[in-house]
Amino acid sequence: MKLDINDEVADSLGLSDKELQEVLAIALYKLERINGVQGGKITGTSEIEFHGILGKYGQFINYDEDDLETDLKNLKDF
Fold this sequence. Notes:
Helix content is 67%, strand content 0%. It has helices spanning 7-13, 17-30, 36-43, 47-56, 65-77. Helix 2 (17-30) packs antiparallel against helix 3 (36-43) and helix 3 crosses helix 4 (47-56). Pfam families: UPF0175.
């Protein structure tokens, strides 16, 4: 898929193509439409590197108490 953004709008954003990809991936991630692996695919990075990109923009990993409980249960079962 290719996304076409009007040149005037793109220029007014002051973002490089790479930065625009990062912002799009972060927005989709925060909306819980994609996960970290998919965010990495959009930005051309690994999931771990994508988590670093989140931090670069002051965002946090989607991880809540349910995730923690699941992880703790998995560790006990391990």
